[in-house]
Inverse folding.
């Protein structure tokens, strides 16, 4: 009897093989992987093997530095190099130049772990070159394209690098009070960058993902927000804490007001969006906590540092590194279970880290639980995205 109909199951397309050219195509590929890997490894070292941190940059100074400049700032640089290519049509760094930038980052991470001064200086020079190279490359593409609204971004990256130099110099001086002030300066420089980027991309992402959603971009309030943040940086440098506190409070209030105007309830069913809203909310609250710290109402810097850093930056980052990676890799803008689990783990890690600051008998156990959730969250991201980031876009394979 003749076969009239033959039905075959669809065969999943074979993914393209890993490719160095693709891996070094845009800044987000190596730097997202490097930053998220270091987020997990550095917390693993800090919580479970602190005895290994014996270099000149050791102990809590190493932990604070590596969280801010080794992890958070690295993701920011990767995002900005990638976004810069979209803003200007000119790819700031790719190929061997991007590989060299990543090598500078790696040199810094290894050098700070070496238990002698030579390793410290090598790491400090490599890291300074990392921020300077990223700022110059981004600035060259922005100024060449006459992208005037982005002229300030390379300056902010240079400011972040300069704050890092001041922090490292203070480490060698051994002045703990000044070290806290330098860390605060770097934290605020990073906050200004995060606010600038998030205020642009969150409304854009939300209106693209939710049908009929129309939310304001808040350009005017964003200018006031940026101005207040820069003013707070200047007042911190001048060591006028009452004025810095007022500027921080204004920045935080504007951030929370913007978030409410973005209609957060409308994105509750879209994980790629609500994770960004949660991070932006935590950043705004963290700035208000920082204002309270500047006023002397919150005695410990650990509170604003962890509300802004763990609850604000880290939650924004786990959302950004998934949403932007999916977009630039040509993948569907949908989450799967592993991504949502990573979101939940990072949020839990932030909440537990704040709980560990409370003076209770369970503080150490809560801290270890926070570290475990943090490591698992970023490990899930790496497990899900590493195979994608080392391969060409599926729609570009030859």
């Amino acid at each position: 009897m003749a076969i009239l109909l033959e039905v075959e199951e669809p065969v999943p397309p074979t993914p393209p093989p890993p490719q160095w050219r693709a891996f070094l195509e845009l800044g987000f590929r190596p730097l997202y992987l490097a930053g998220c890997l270091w987020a997990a490894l550095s917390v693993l070292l800090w919580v479970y093997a602190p005895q290994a941190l014996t270099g000149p940059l050791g102990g809590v100074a190493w932990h604070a530095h590596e969280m801010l400049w080794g992890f958070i700032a690295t993701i920011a640089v990767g995002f900005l190099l990638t976004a810069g290519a979209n803003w200007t049509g000119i790819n700031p760094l790719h190929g061997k130049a991007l590989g060299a930038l990543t090598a500078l980052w790696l040199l810094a991470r290894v050098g700070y772990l070496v238990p002698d001064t030579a390793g410290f200086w090598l790491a400090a020079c490599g890291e300074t070159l990392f921020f300077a190279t990223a700022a110059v490359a981004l600035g060259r593409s922005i100024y060449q394209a006459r992208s005037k609204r982005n002229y300030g971004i390379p300056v902010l990256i240079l400011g972040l690098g300069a704050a890092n130099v001041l922090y490292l110099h203070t480490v060698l001086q051994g002045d703990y009070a000044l070290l806290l002030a330098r860390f605060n300066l770097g934290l605020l420089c990073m906050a200004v960058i995060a606010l600038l980027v998030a205020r642009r991309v969150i409304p854009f992402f939300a209106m693209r993902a939710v049908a009929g959603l129309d939310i304001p971009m808040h350009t005017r309030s964003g200018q006031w927000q940026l101005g207040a943040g820069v003013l707070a940086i200047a007042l911190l440098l001048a060591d006028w804490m009452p004025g810095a506190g007022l500027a921080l409070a204004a920045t935080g209030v504007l951030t929370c007001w913007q978030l409410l105007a973005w209609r957060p309830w409308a994105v509750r069913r879209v994980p790629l969006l609500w994770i960004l809203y949660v991070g932006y909310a935590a950043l705004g609250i963290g700035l208000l906590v920082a204002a309270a710290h500047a006023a002397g109402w919150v005695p410990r810097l650990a509170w604003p540092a962890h509300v802004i850093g763990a609850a604000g930056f880290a939650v924004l980052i786990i959302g950004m590194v998934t949403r932007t990676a999916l977009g630039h890799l040509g993948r569907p803008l949908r989450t799967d279970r592993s991504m949502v689990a990573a979101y939940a783990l990072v949020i839990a890690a932030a909440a537990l880290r704040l709980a560990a600051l409370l003076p209770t008998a369970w503080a150490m156990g809560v801290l270890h639980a926070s570290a475990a959730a943090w490591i698992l969250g970023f490990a899930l991201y790496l497990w899900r995205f590493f195979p994608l980031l080392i391969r060409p876009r599926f729609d570009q394979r030859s």
